[in-house]
Amino acid sequence: MHYLTCAIIRKDDKVLICRRPPSVTHALKWEFPGRITESHLPTKANLSLKIREELSIDILVGRPLEMTQQGHKSPAVCRYPVLCTFSSGEVAMLEYVQAIWVPSVELSHFDWTDTDRPSVEEYFIVITPEKV
């Protein structure tokens, strides 16, 4: 089993989303940062370090959203989105071409990677009603 982890980083009533570079797969699509693929469940420290490497910010790693299996590939890949809170720093473009803070209700307006689209939908259903 492989785990594909991403951080849904919140600050006030907004979420940080990042745009992929034009030279990579799924060019210029939006995703949640912290893409980690591991053969074991990732740790909070791994995700925190990955975010620091990608964006030069610190986060508090919180609880995961629902883990779901993607496709029927072998080995199986589980999507593992984790709720996080911005802690400190200024966002730097180290691996992305753009990073923006977006109100939760606007997340569905972006062109997401196929991997992150289910996380957007789940986040909106599970978290947003608490704020609306």
Describe this structure in words.
This protein has one domain: Alpha-Beta Complex (Nucleoside Triphosphate Pyrophosphohydrolase). Helices cover 20% and strands 39% of the residues. The chain is built from three helices and eight strands; from the N terminus they run ββββαββββαα.
Write a compact overview of the structure shown.
The chain is α+β, with helices and mostly antiparallel strands and 132 residues long.
Which helices and strands, and how do they pair?
Layout lengths: L1 E10 L2 E6 L10 E2 L4 E3 L5 H12 L1 E8 L3 E3 L6 E13 L8 E6 L13 H10 L1 H4 L1
Parallel strand pairs: 1-7
Antiparallel strand pairs: 1-2, 1-4, 2-3, 2-8, 5-7, 6-7
Helical content class: 10-25%
Q: What is the CATH architecture descriptor?
A: Alpha-Beta Complex
Structural class: alpha+beta
Rg, Cα atoms, Å: 14 Å
CATH superfamily: Nucleoside Triphosphate Pyrophosphohydrolase
Provide the CATH top-level class. Answer: Alpha Beta
Number of helices: 3
Topology order in helix (H) and strand (E) letters: EEEEHEEEEHH
Mean pLDDT, all residues: 87
- Gross morphology: globular
Beta-strand segment tally: 8
What proportion of the residues form beta strands (DSSP E)?
35-45%
Q: What is the distance, rounded to the nearest whole angstrom, between the alpha carbons of the first and last residues?
A: 37 Å
Summarize the main sheet.
8 strands, mixed
Indicate the multimeric state: single chain
